[in-house]
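Co-fold these.
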Amino acid sequence: MADLQKELLQVLNSFTGTVVSQSILQLSIRMAGVDISNLSDDGSQRLADCIRNGINTFIQEPGKRDACLFKVREVLRSSGPHYPSSGLQGDQVAIADESDILRARTIGHALIRDLGFSSTDQTKIVTVISELARNIFKYAGRGTISFTKLRGNRRGIQIVAHDSGPGIQEIDKIMAGQYHSTSGLGIGLSGSKRLMDEFFIETQPGKGTRITARKFLD
Amino acid sequence: MKETSRIPIISLHGNLIISIQVAMSDRMVQLLKDDVTQKIEQERPAGVVIDVSGINIMDSYISRAIRDLCIMASLMGVRTAISGIDPMIAVTLVEMGIGLEGVKTERDLESALEFLGRQVPADEEDLSALLESPVTEEDDWVHLLDEVDTQE
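Predicted complex below.
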């Protein structure tokens, strides 16, 4: 579908120059490793993530970025069957492959850098993203990591790791640090909790796990 | 599928230097373990330094992998050290409760090589002489004392 490419270019053109738009799109398609004429859900999401990185690099003004990203998503959503409609202020990364761990880290990092976290906090939060994404990959196989910028009383970031995997057995023991698994799940989770301001785990054996982690700016 | 890239292992003056600069995948960790043990077997180095100054994130998995590498090398009778842990990574690891017990850490590559107790030889002749001479007991004592000093 060459139309999709044309449509995306038009959107990008309206926010940046023609040359910039073309390079953003070409690079994104290459980095996402997708065939733009035949986008899967996952591919469409990868492409959106890559375009988002390009937009963040080339458009300095946050309001303009959001608007551009919003339009790009609209175009992608209308082309793909079920592209998830995450809000303007956040992002979602599908974890299905080991390389997605790094992708989640990169996307999350860009977001928290924008929010103005100190570099030590950035290292801590990205470490937590890495732990959560790796747990999904290792134990559930697939799932999602979503990021939401928290506004209002306390500004910060919310990270939600969700999967429909086997759930975590003996979660209380793990979080109390009494559990020393050979695979390293114990220290990864209890350590992540220590790095964040809020950390909740909902898990059901056989059903899946949802972990919500928050870190505030002040 | 892309071919998995390998972490290079550099032989320098009888030591092996492993400089990790990328986020490692499971496969890369596995390959590195195989490569390191093989190189130790082949080259009989005096020491192994794992330099992590190029890594900006160390989660529990990676720190465990690096610690395992050190322990493996130690088990094979080779002195090992980790160098170049970023200050922000140090803060993060401590808060998580991850220690690198049983592993010698050094500020940077240079001090790690010093710790391994090898002067940089002036020429090839010295090099071969050094390679043949085992670490003396005296050397070991000096380093033990150093370690005691830093712990206090």
